Each structure stands twice: as C-alpha cells, then as structure tokens.
C-alpha cells in the first residue's frame, strides 16, 4: 500500500510540474514574430514623429500603448489610469564664454564648448562662481565596500572639486579592486556630481578622457549645448552644486601646468593612500539660466497576481526617442525603431503572454514604458521616486533597450553581469534555448548605468538588462561585430534608425520567450533575488528590508 501511496505522490508531483510547464509553454506561444513586426512598424512610423516628449508624437505613442494594454487585458494601476504624470523642467544654460582660473596674479582662460562645458540644475537665475578654490579630489569617490574615500582628509565645503572620470579599477585586472576594468557606479558622472554635493562642494568638474568615459568629448558637448531636462524638484535642487561641468583632457593638462601640479598625480589617484589636495588656484565662471516647465508621462499596465499580489516584477522599455531634428541624408524624423521600438514590442509580447497563462502568477507584473530616457533616464527616476508598489515589495526589474534586428543569437548578453542572483536565472534559461551567457564585452563603458534598469538599481531593485547581441546563430561573431559597429555608426541616434524590410526580428522573439519565462519563474517564487556582495547597490536594498 505504502509503495502505491508513494508512487501516487510521485505521479501527482510530476503532474503538477508538467501542468506548470504547460501553463508557461502554452502562454509562450502567443509571442509571435508578426506581432513584434507590427508593433515596431507602427511605433517607428513617421506618423509618430520620433516619439519626443511634449510633442504630438507623445500623445500618439501613449494612445497606442494604452490601447494595447487594454486589448491585452492589463489594468490601469495609477489611480485608475495607465499614465503617470512626470513634471519636468527644461533648463537652458548660458555659461560665460571663458572659465577663468587665477593663481598668484596670473590667469588661465578655458573656452566654452571646445575646452569645457558647464551646467547647474539649481532653480536660480544665475550661478555666479567667483574666486572659488580648486581641490583635486582624485576620482571623487566614497566607497566603503572598497575602503575608499577620496574626501577623507579634506574639507571641500564651498570649493570646486576636479575629479577623474571612471573609477580606480579602470585599466587594471585585479577583480578585487573595484571591479577591475569594469566600470562601477562610482565611475559615472551622475554619481560624482551627487557625491560632490553631499560633501558640500560648490562645484564638480570632471576631467574627460574618451576611453575612460566610454564616449568622446563631442557627446558631452552636444548634450551640453541644448537645453537640458530635469525632473521638477520641490526644493529647486538647492542641495546640488552650483557648477556641474566637464573639461577636456587637454584643458586638464593646461590646468595642471598652470597650477604646477605634477601630471603623475593622475596615476597616484589610483592608489589607496592618495590624498586630495588644494591646487592653490581659483575659478571664476558665471552661468545664466532660463526655465521652462512642462510635463510628460510614464505609461504602465498591470497584471494582478494571486496570493502574493502585493509583490511585483517590473518589465520596462522606454517609449521616447529624439523626435524631429537636424536633417541627415534627406531625413529629419528620428524614428527610433531599434531605440526603442523593438524593446516596446518585446514588452508588449511578454505582457500578452502573461495574460494567456491559465493559472495566473502569484506575484503581480507591471509593464512600464518610462518617458524621457533619452533626456537623462528621467521617467524611470520619477517612477522609483513615486512607485506604484513599495520598493521593498518590488522583486526585480527586467529592462530592454536597443534590441538589434539581425536574427537569432547564440549569446545572451548580460550587461552588468555579476551584479545579482538574477544572472543564475538567465544562465538556466539560456541553456534551455541552447544559448550561452555572455557578460558585456565592453564593461568599462558602464552600459549598466545607461538605461532605465539603472534607476531601479540605484534605488536598490535587482535589475536585468539582457539580450542576444554578439553571436549570430547563422553567421557567427565576426559578422555580428561588424553589423553592430555599422549600426552604431550609421543608425544610432540618427534618422536612419528606422524599420527596414530586410530586418529579421527572430532574435527579439527568442529573447521575449526567454525573458517571459524568467519573469514567470520569479512571479511564482516567494523569495527575493539578492544583489551579490560586491554590488554597489546591495547596501541600498539591505536598508529596505530592515
Ligand atoms: Zn534607448
């Protein structure tokens, strides 16, 4: 009898797991190439005018996504609405043409745009910097987990700090020292400006270097000369610096020469006994500002869970792109088909698959299309500051951006590999699709901090940015490397990022299936995936659970 009973238990367990499997597999079938193509073609058509915030293109995009959410059967989670208002302020900066540096009665002039750029998000008409002391503060980093504090020995209150881009691990191979050549969050400009403000500095100037930054100075300059968007802040950013700027490497050499600072301190800044020091010189600069207030919208749809419906998994893909801009090869509509039409289609197909589950997931699933990613990852920042579910109940974020149309891939590239336990889920599911996990081959560029998943990470939520990208199943790695390079130089952030008939979106289909299943597994568990111990975001998450 007992044997029969055991056999019965065994069989019924087998039955449950098969049933669970079927539940997932049947739902996966709704992920269709034709649907993905249809969504991309629509969202990247000229009619949407490049999906820019505050434009008619925004209204059309939000309507399209809302209709899809309704059609799929998702709920409106923001007080009965699908949209979340995101109040923003556009700041037009007019810095003085010269940054003037003085020392012992002599002066050095740096030129706006070719040698320096300067911003200030403080809601004041003018940031007037007069004779402020300059401190060289190495990398400008306070990282207790690496026992590192560039501000340890010096008071920078009211002063201007000059810091290096990236982090001390850049160009090294010792994985225990920061993350060696992989950029940590401490290497990003976002962090450096925030830390300088926390230290009470009046300003922070970053020394640019193309390889360490991951992009040339022209990218910094182009971003600086157009009006910049920020979220509206109730305190008018009064706690931020009066000056957030960059100087070129050549301008930094001039500054070092002028202040008789030995260039070798650049290398010394990489060593743990480095100490910040006063350059015994002063900065003069004036930034005049004008402000325009406007609002854009995040849009989201919710699939409610069952017994754990208070907990949520968030899929995200930004809806915005660059709108209408300078004409290039006869075209002025920046359609944003790859950036980020393909990922929007990816998210819509995953959402549909979730609604096809016979047995609903235990946890809730939120599908979020943030605004203004292209303007500084603002919509997702607003979301994490005003979340629909508490952050401590937010299990994970699965984001996508720039999914390329070159067919099925052998790899599944994990940007920010090693950050959290979510990697284990990707590993398992990659094998199932006969693929392999590939950590980002260019981790020094800090891509993990450059799309919406970063805002979730910054606020402690384990986040994934994952897609097939590097190894074509049919044509291999070299071919794909060539295609990616071509795409980046001919199409990225250009009107030529548009839907073409030769596109092959089979890879997006496969990624959708993989990441649907990943969310499905998470949605039926009760544990919370953790950050790894060397992650710079772990301490933020730990605070949410205490
Ligand atoms: Zn994008």
Condensed summary:
This protein has two domains: 31-75 and 304-544, Zn peptidases (Aminopeptidase); 90-292, Glucose Oxidase, domain 1. The protein is built from 15 helices and 20 strands.
What report would you give on this structure?
With 546 residues, the chain is α/β, with parallel strands linked by helices. 32% of the residues lie in helices and 25% in strands. The protein contains 15 helices and 20 strands. It has a 16-stranded mixed sheet that branches. Helix 2 (33-43) packs across helix 9 (337-355), helix 9 (337-355) packs across helix 14 (506-523) and helix 11 (422-432) packs across helix 14. The radius of gyration is 25 Å and the shape is globular. It starts with a helix and ends with a helix. Bound molecules: zinc ion. Zinc ion is lined by residues 318, 339-340, 373, 401-402, 451. Zinc ion (ZN) is lined by residues 318, 339-340, 373, 401-402, 451.
Task: Please supply descriptive tags for the structure shown above.
about 550 residues, alpha/beta, Aminopeptidase, Glucose Oxidase, domain 1, 2 domains, 16-stranded mixed beta sheet, two-stranded antiparallel sheet, 20 strands, about 30% helix, binds zinc ion
């Amino acid at each position: 009898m007992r044997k029969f009973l055991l056999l019965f238990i065994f069989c019924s367990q087998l039955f449950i797991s098969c049933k669970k499997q079927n539940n997932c597999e049947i739902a996966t079938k709704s992920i269709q190439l034709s649907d993905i193509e249809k969504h991309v073609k629509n969202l990247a058509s000229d009619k949407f005018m490049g999906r820019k915030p505050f434009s008619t293109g925004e209204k059309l995009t939000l309507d399209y996504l809302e209709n899809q959410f309704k059609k799929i059967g998702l709920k409106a989670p923001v007080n009965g609405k699908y949209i979340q208002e995101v109040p923003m302020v556009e700041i037009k900066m007019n810095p003085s043409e010269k940054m003037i540096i003085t020392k012992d009665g002599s002066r050095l002039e740096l030129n706006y745009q070719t040698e320096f750029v300067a911003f200030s998000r403080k809601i004041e008409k003018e940031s007037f910097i007069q004779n402020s002391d300059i401190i060289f503060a190495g990398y400008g980093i306070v990282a207790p987990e690496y026992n590192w504090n560039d501000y340890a020995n010096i008071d920078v209150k009211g002063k201007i700090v000059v810091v290096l881009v990236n982090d001390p691990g850049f160009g090294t191979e010792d994985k225990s020292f920061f993350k060696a050549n992989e950029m940590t969050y401490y290497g990003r400009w976002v962090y450096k400006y925030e830390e300088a403000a926390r230290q009470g500095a009046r300003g922070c100037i970053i020394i640019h270097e193309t390889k360490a930054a991951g992009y040339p100075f022209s990218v910094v300059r182009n971003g600086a000369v157009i009006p910049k968007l920020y979220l509206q802040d109730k305190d008018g950013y009064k706690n931020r610096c009066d000056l957030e700027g960059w100087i070129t490497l050549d301008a930094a050499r001039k500054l070092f020469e002028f202040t008789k600072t030995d260039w070798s301190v650049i290398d010394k800044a990489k060593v743990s006994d480095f100490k910040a020091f006063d350059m015994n010189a002063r900065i003069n600069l004036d930034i005049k500002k004008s402000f325009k207030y406007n609002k854009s919208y995040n849009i989201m749809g919710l699939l409610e869970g069952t017994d754990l419906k208070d907990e949520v998994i968030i899929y995200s893909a930004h809806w915005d792109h660059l709108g209408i801009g300078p004409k290039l090869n006869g075209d002025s509509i920046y359609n944003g088909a790859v950036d980020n039409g393909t990922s929007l289609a990816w998210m819509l197909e995953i959402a549909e698959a979730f609604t096809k589950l016979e047995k609903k997931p235990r946890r809730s699933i939120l599908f979020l299309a943030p605004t203004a990613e292209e303007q500084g990852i603002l919509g997702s920042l607003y979301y994490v500051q005003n979340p629909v579910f508490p952050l401590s109940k937010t299990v994970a974020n699965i984001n996508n951006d720039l999914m390329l149309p070159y067919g099925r891939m052998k790899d599944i590239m994990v940007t920010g590999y090693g950050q959290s336990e979510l990697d284990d889920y990707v590993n398992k599911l990659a094998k199932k699709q006969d693929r392999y996990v590939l950590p980002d081959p260019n981790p020094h560029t800090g891509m993990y901090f450059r799309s919406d998943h970063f805002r979730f990470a910054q606020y402690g939520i384990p986040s994934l940015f994952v897609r097939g990208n590097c190894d074509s199943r049919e044509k291999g790695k070299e071919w794909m490397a060539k295609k990616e390079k071509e795409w980046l130089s001919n199409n990225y952030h250009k009107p030529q990022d548009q839907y073409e008939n030769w596109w092959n979106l089979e890879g997006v289909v496969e990624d959708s299936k993989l990441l649907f299943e990943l969310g499905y597994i998470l949605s039926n568990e009760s544990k919370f995936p953790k950050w790894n111990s060397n992650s710079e975001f772990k301490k933020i998450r730990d605070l949410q659970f205490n």
